[in-house]
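Hi there,

I know you've been waiting on this one. I reran it after we fixed the sequence typo, so this is the corrected version. Both the input and the resulting structure follow.
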Amino acid sequence: MEIRFAVHPDDFTSYDTSKIRAHFLIENLMLDGRIKFVYSHYDRFITGGAVPSTEDIELQSYEPLKADFFLQRREMGIINTGAQGTVIADGESFELENKECLYIGKGVKSVIFRSYNGKNPARFYLTSAPAHKEYPIKKFTLEDAAPLELGAKETANERTVYKFIHEKGIQSCQLVMGMTLLKTGSIWNTMPTHVHDRRMEVYFYFDLPENQKVIHLMGQPDETRHMVVGNDQAIISPSWSIHSGAGTHNYSFIWAMAGENYNYADMDAVDINYLR
């Protein structure tokens, strides 16, 4: 488990490209036959990927957690970005098709990841936050997630937002998780942009064709920076940072948050004319 420490916004303004990427970009997240985790000191949020191929993968605890099992004091959100797969939680099996979500609450001891076809594996994107209360395991399909249509063709940000884990969806302690799919011809996400000082956020970009990229914007609204990111890469976005991006092709991304609350609509809009 890789550890990432928090960064003060004043220090961030002096970072060059390589340093920004080292602190905030998560590369090589989906590795065949493995689980990869990055632990961020922003709200103790964990981002991960699990790709079971020929064999099942069982979730283990990690020394930095000082826990008997991974979910002893944590909750987890899972979205399958690959082919059909199965998650087995304390002996109960949950089939996940592409873009379906599963929440696993605090106290579940055994979590096993399995692909239906090892040659075309499931690709489980994992998020985890500290939890103080047990909530039941719950699966959501795209239809369960009450799709929200946003944006317009004229502003190249026509997109569908699926809200999975939040106060009006799957119940959790603090984890918020959902997914945004950009329509053909649209490239902008979360524009006009916003910040939310009550929560940090992680973006995971996927469904981006080979040799296409996303220009991800971050930093304080009047002092922005950018990173060029590719498919199956994630960005750790501090609470003081905007989180927007524009691609060279339409794409999908998963957004996940932890912090003070789990109200999806809790955000502070930033006037586009204020961005620098």
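Quick highlight: The mean pLDDT is 96.

Best,
R. S.
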